[in-house]
Write a structure and sequence with these properties.
About 40% of the residues lie in helices and about 15% in strands. The protein is an alpha/beta fold and about 300 residues long. It has a single domain (about 5-305), classed as TIM Barrel. It has an eight-stranded parallel β-barrel, surrounded by four helices. It has a two-stranded antiparallel ribbon with strand order 5-6. α7 runs parallel beside α9. The longest helix is centred in the C-terminal third of the chain and has 17 residues, at about 215-230.
């Protein structure tokens, strides 16, 4: 019988708007998450923000352009220092905005400091202004993502490393410290399973992050597609990681209800999810409410773990 212990519940942390711009509050929230029984935290990313948040392609973008977005790998390093077992996840890190060699070094350093707890969820991003601000071609962000992670994989592998692509090339270089696991931390690619994204996951990735709002039938369809692609390439489909988002259910009061939302986990298990992200910002909007919510969450998680799914 499968229980929720085989499907870890991760807590999606909102950007710094809840914390009044103070990254230390985000770090303390992550510490509370570990104490409450969450398996990990997920932190999202924007390097800069432009005014046109209305161009967000997946619905309404809740944050204003001046919302604080602490740099994820920096914040996760601080989280690593105040936790012991909490998985440290990005979701998503806009990898093309970072030079590949610097990303490989930063990620490996955090992975070593946290004793192998880092998990990189990566994607292309959607905002033109972020690429313009760094002199990058936003229309090439898919290629940049592939090249960046390919270069990181090379740098996390055998030394000296050599890699050549359209946007990143180097030969006979060393990048140490090395990550805890051979080949580097797990890398999960986000987004729709286009042929190019499918190829990225098969060739470079450990898993898939469906777009936010994807329901279990869509997750199941994606898992079936990936299972076949991995098997066809000689990789073990059983090792596929799928980090799905927990649909938020409202209770009788009309407010988001954690217990009712967690009741949707079995359907995600059946769809092939291996991890589920519960978005903190959907349940709590004020920092002052965090202690009471985490006390409630601890009880709900304990009950959920004891209940068959």
């Amino acid at each position: 019988m499968t229980t929720s212990k085989s499907l870890p519940i991760l807590l999606g942390l909102p950007p710094g708007d809840m914390a009044g711009g103070d990254p230390a509050v985000v770090v303390d929230t992550a510490r509370r998450a570990e104490e409450a029984g969450f398996a990990g935290v997920v932190i999202s990313d924007h390097v800069v923000m432009g005014a046109r948040t209305d161009r967000y392609p997946w619905g309404s973008f809740r944050q204003a352009p001046d919302c604080p977005w602490p740099e994820p790998l920096t914040v996760l390093t601080a989280v690593a220092a105040v936790t012991t077992a909490l998985r440290l996840c990005t979701g998503i890190l806009i990898a093309p905005l970072r030079p590949a060699t610097l990303l490989a070094k930063t990620a490996a350093t955090l992975d070593v400091l946290s004793h192998g707890r880092l998990e990189l969820g990566v994607g292309t991003g959607w905002q033109q202004e972020e690429f313009d601000a760094q002199g990058l071609d936003a229309s090439a962000r898919g290629e940049l993502l592939t090249d960046t992670i390919g270069a990181c994989r090379a740098l996390w592998g055998a030394s000296p490393a050599t890699f050549s692509s359209g946007s990143v090339s180097f030969a006979d270089i060393w990048c140490h410290p090395r990550p805890v696991s051979p080949g580097g931390p797990p890398v999960l690619f986000s987004g729709t399973l286009t042929p190019r994204n499918l190829r990225r996951i098969v060739e470079l990735g450990d898993g898939w992050i469906p777009i936010m709002g994807e329901r279990p039938p869509g997750v199941a369809d994606g898992v079936a597609l990936l299972t076949k692609a991995l098997a066809d390439s000689g990789r073990d489909p059983a090792a596929l990681r799928v980090r799905a988002h927990l649909p938020v259910v409202r209770g009788d009061s009309g407010d988001p209800d954690l217990a009712a939302s967690l009741a949707g986990v079995p359907e995600l298990v059946a769809a092939g999810a291996t991890d589920v992200v519960a978005p903190l910002g959907a349940f709590v909007r004020d920092e002052a409410d965090l202690p009471a919510w985490f006390s409630h969450a601890r009880r709900r998680l304990q009950y959920h773990e004891a209940s068959p799914t």
